[in-house]
Amino acid sequence: MDRVDCVVVGAGVVGLAVARELALAGREVLILEAEAAFGTATSARNSEVIHAGIYYPQGSLKGRLCVAGRRQLYEFCDSYGVAHRRSGKLIVATDEAQIAALEQLQRHAQANGVDDLQRLDGHEVLALEPQLQAVAGLLSPSTGIIDSHALMLALLGDAERHGAVLALNAPVADIVAASDGLRVEVGGADPLQLLARTVVNCAGHGAPVLAARTQGLSDAARPRQFFAKGSYFSLSGCTPFRHLVYPLPEPGGLGVHLTLDLAGQARFGPDVQWVEDLDYCIELERANGFYAAIRRYWPGLPDDALQPAYTGIRPKISGPGEAAADFRIDGPAQHGIAGLVNLFGIESPGLTACLAIAEHVCGLLEHKALAT
Question: Has this prediction a pTM greater than 0.85?
């Protein structure tokens, strides 16, 4: 049986950030990825937005790690040449009945440490984006966009420069807590057994599955998983917008919003569709609901202007009708197994928070977790 210091399961953006953080700390790191390439699931199927930290419950891991991670991410992008832009975001109230909710959202954001939101009246919103229908808005200047693949390349490159190794087509079948460490069963074409001092389960959708196969974990340490699919449609032709545009949040997500990529192409989404399995096919008829949602804030959206783009599936640990779950990052203090950290429900703002999540994981392993 081969021995290794640290195993990180999953080479999405969070797994790569964790591997890099461990490698920077001088640990020997092996990254095990089940697919033939890194970052092919949630990390590749999202809005590529750098979030400010506006929406999340005060004191939550999502809120704290997003605010800290956003600052770290901008610094990382500047240092490593990762393409990004501080495009700014408008959150709009489309009628007078929504103004109270907009004001509450601003207070909530300030409590989360987002101190740069600017309240705008309808005239000020239209001065920035004349095509919008809005009676008021919030401008978030620290919201931005990023090339997620370039980010993962930079994280992986830095991890590898500090000794980390990536193994592809290496699915982890199970983990067994033993007296001499954590025994990791690796499948694929060349199955093997590893004995690790530390294992970090960053497997995304596969994280609850792997936890269910980890011997020694209690039922309470094995959460249920739920899949919330989101579809994206792109705008044909040129966009009239310079900022990201968001409606007020809705249950399960942030509403059908307008984002821009670094080439200036506009896309809309995601919506929320609860599904039973990982099916990334896009249903063309869902565009009908998009037109209605978008025209609440952009009445001038032309007919037949939306083209199918892609879908993503949020790796949730709370289901339909339930309160949205926080990030769940379980270390030895939570489940009792030395050297093991499980990450569950790392949906948005996981990309924004990836560097802060990595620090938090290392803190759990060092018994120096963020104060609760």
Answer: yes
CB 297 within 8 A of CB 187: no
Phi and psi at residue 222, to the nearest 5°? -125, 85
Helix, strand, or coil here: 27?
coil
The first and second tokens of residue 111, run together, are 């409590």
Domain at 2-47+149-224+324-365, CATH from 3.90.226.10, 3.50.50.60, 3.30.450.20, 3.20.20.70: 3.50.50.60
Give residue limits of the domains in the chain: 2-47+149-224+324-365, 87-142+226-316
Query: Could you confirm whether domain 87-142+226-316 is CATH 3.30.420.40?
Result: no
List, in sequence order, every residue forming a beta bridge with 227; answer none if it has no partner. 275, 315
Residue 314 contacts by C-beta under 8 Å, 6 or more apart in sequence? Answer: 42, 227, 228, 229, 230, 253, 347, 348
CB 45 within 8 A of CB 244: no
| Burial readout 296-322 (b: 16 or more C-beta within 10 A, e: otherwise) | ebbeebeeebbeebbbbbbbbbbeeee
pLDDT tens digits, one per residue of 298-323: 999 999 999 999 999 999 999 999 99
